[in-house]
TrEMBL record:
Pfam families: CGLD27-like (PF06799). InterPro entries: CGLD27-like. The chain crosses the membrane at residues 41-59, 66-88, 144-162. Keywords: Membrane, Transmembrane, Transmembrane helix. The keyword Transmembrane applies. This is Ycf36. It comes from Synechococcus elongatus (strain ATCC 33912 / PCC 7942 / FACHB-805). The keyword Transmembrane helix applies.
Length: 166
């Protein structure tokens, strides 16, 4: 199978999938349970080092403590959101290449793009992998991205309501 495939090893969808699974960053979403959320919580916690001083410039902690905490928490959530979007982008790219009937590739990197039509067996294997391995990861990411966006939006709404005196 690999001998007839003209796509360079590192550009083959199955190998791209395995590379993401083995990578330090992209493997986060593959971890069960809290294994996925732990690194995101670390990012959120470390982001407070930047978000808290910015929030303190807008809301003095001694006068507007709740607004300060809410705005710092929302600001610290932005790097978490960006990390999740990067994870989603990488996994979506691999899912799309696994599910595609043909794979674009570059042989030498000098704009000599080619397309390889996957044989039926390879296409069936890749689509199963895309459906049963990668799609659940994308669903998990989509859900956590939605939660993060909802948190940031609810925080902004809460600050507006607090500033309005409601």
């Amino acid at each position: 199978m690999r001998s007839v495939c003209p796509v360079p090893e590192e550009q083959q969808p199955l190998n791209e999938y395995q590379t993401l699974q083995d990578s330090w960053f992209f493997s986060w979403v593959c971890r069960p349970g809290l294994g996925y959320y732990r690194p995101l919580l670390w990012i959120w916690g470390l982001s407070w080092l930047i978000a808290a001083p910015v929030a303190a410039a807008s809301f003095r902690p001694s006068r507007a403590g709740v607004e300060f905490i809410v705005s710092a928490a929302a600001g610290a959530a932005l790097p978490v959101l960006f990390a999740q979007i990067q994870l989603y982008s990488g996994w979506r790219h691999v899912r799309d290449r696994l599910a595609a009937e043909s794979v674009p590739y570059e042989e030498s990197g000098w704009y000599d793009g080619q397309f390889w039509q996957k044989p039926t067996e390879v296409l069936a294997r890749d689509r199963l992998l895309a459906s049963y391995e990668v799609q659940p990861l994308l669903d998990r990411l989509r859900q956590s991205i939605g939660s993060c966006v909802a948190f940031i939006g609810a925080s902004a709404l809460l600050i507006v309501l607090l500033r309005a005196g409601l």
